[in-house]
Structures are given as C-alpha cells and as structure tokens.
C-alpha cells in the first residue's frame, strides 16, 4: 500500500523533531514546514493525506490554514495547541478539525490518533457483515469501520461528530442530556464545556441536510437534551 503523507506545520524545533521521528517510525512520510504560506503550498502541490497544524506560527496560525483547506477539501486535520482556553478548541472543531492535541503531549498518542483518523477517513469499502444501525434506509452505522453512510456514501465526519451521531443512531428516540453525551463522546477530553455538544449538533445537522436528510432528524428537547428521530 502507498505510504501516507502527513503535512506538519510546527515552528518549535524540539516538538517538530519529536513528531518527525515518531511518525517516521510508523512509516509515514512527513513534510515539515514552519510557515502558513509553506503549508498552503504543500497542500496545493503535494496532496497530503492528513495535516497536523500548530495553532500559533510566525506568519499566522493553524486556523488560517484550516479555513483555506476547508474551502476545497475534507482533508483530515489535527490541531496542536499550547492554549488551554475552551474557545480555541471549539473554534478548531467548528472549522472542521478532526481532533486536537494540547501540548505537552505524547508523540505515541499523536501517532495513534493519526492512524485512527486515517482509518475512519479511508475509502475502502466495508467487508464482512457489519453491525449497522439504520434510520430509515438512508443513515447506516458501521461500528467496525467507524463510519456512517448516507444513502450508501460515507459521511465526512470528524472524530467527535462520528461519536455523537453514532451514539444518537444506536438509540433512536432516546433523549440524551448534554452531560451524558459529554461522558459518552468526549470522555477523553474532560475539560471540554457542554456547549461543544450544541456546536457539533449544528454541524451534524448541516451535513445531514447536505446529503438530503432533514436537519430536524436530530431533535432538540428543551432543557433535556437531544434525540434521533426514528423513521421508517
């Protein structure tokens, strides 16, 4: 199989060297740049399979790169950030990032997350007889492949979008409170605020609408939480 190509935007030499070694040891081809302008040039010319973007670099930030990429591509994106503010993480996820890692971090954890994201975003068809949850005949959940299909086509979902939609799909009509969804989907990010759930519901509704489903398929229950409408 062809080697996965990773775009790494990171201006701190020590962090960049650690990631270059860890990702290289896992068989990835890593293209390292330190400037936004160079990252955009690599995206246009080298067609990476995933981008790891530092939030703060000398000529801008990773958010600028993410915005530019999202105008034309669903390229998987992971943010690296030293910031602790919740608003930064929410902004990154709302821009379409698949994951974020807060410094200091374990290079092995970054590699594990990169491999998981690439598996979810792969283009190979499902094999065997996957366990599925269905909403009507349009939405199909394949937990083994960590993928949700709409009308037979895989939805382009970030890590947390997938977790949130899968949770709702598996229990249609069951109302989940925000705190329940936080525990089930964001269990590895305990410092994330509950309003992140609302932001992701908004993004999911837009993606469901884009593939021809009703935005109201995910129902809001005031002062209670969210549920998935059961359809036939």
Automatic annotation (TrEMBL):
**Membrane spanning residue stretches:** none
Entry's Gene Ontology BP terms: positive regulation of DNA-templated transcription
Q: Which residues carry this modification: 4-aspartylphosphate?
A: 54
UniProt keywords, alphabetically = Cytoplasm, DNA-binding, Phosphoprotein, Transcription, Transcription regulation, Two-component regulatory system
Q: Which residues form the Response regulatory domain?
A: 5-118
Residue ranges forming the DNA-binding region read 130-230
What GO terms fall under cellular component here? cytosol; protein-DNA complex
**Where in this chain does the record put each OmpR/PhoB-type domain?**
130-230
- Indicate where this protein resides in the cell: Cytoplasm
Any one Pfam family here would be Response_reg
Is this entry keyworded Metal-binding? no
Q: What Gene Ontology terms describe what this protein does at the molecular function level?
A: cis-regulatory region sequence-specific DNA binding; identical protein binding; phosphorelay response regulator activity
Tagged with keyword Transcription regulation: yes
Please name the NCBIfam families in this protein's record.
PRK11083.1 (NF008296)
What is the official name of this protein in its record?
Answer: Two-component system response regulator CreB
**What is the scientific name of the source organism?**
Hydrogenophaga crassostreae
């Amino acid at each position: 199989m062809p080697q996965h190509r990773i775009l790494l935007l990171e201006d701190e030499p020590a962090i960049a060297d650690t990631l270059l070694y860890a990702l290289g040891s896992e068989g990835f081809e890593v293209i390292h740049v330190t400037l936004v302008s160079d990252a955009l040039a690599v995206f246009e010319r080298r067609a990476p399979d995933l981008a790891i973007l530092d939030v703060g670099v000398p000529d801008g930030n990773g958010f600028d790169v993410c915005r530019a990429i999202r105008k034309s591509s669903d390229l998987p994106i992971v943010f690296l950030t030293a910031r602790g503010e919740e608003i930064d993480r929410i902004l990154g996820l709302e821009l379409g990032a698949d994951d974020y890692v807060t410094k200091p971090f374990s290079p092995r954890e970054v590699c594990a997350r990169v491999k998981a994201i690439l598996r979810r975003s792969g283009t190979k068809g499902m094999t065997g007889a996957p366990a599925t949850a269905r909403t009507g005949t349009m939405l199909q959940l394949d937990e083994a492949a960590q993928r949700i299909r709409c009308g037979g086509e895989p939805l382009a979902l970030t890590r947390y979008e997938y977790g949130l939609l899968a949770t709702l799909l598996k229990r249609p009509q069951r109302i989940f409170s925000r705190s329940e969804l936080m525990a089930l989907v964001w269990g590895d990010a305990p410092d994330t605020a509950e309003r992140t759930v609302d932001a992701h519901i908004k993004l999911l509704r837009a993606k469901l609408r884009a593939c021809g489903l009703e935005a109201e398929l995910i129902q809001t229950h005031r002062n209670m939480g969210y549920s998935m409408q059961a359809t036939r």
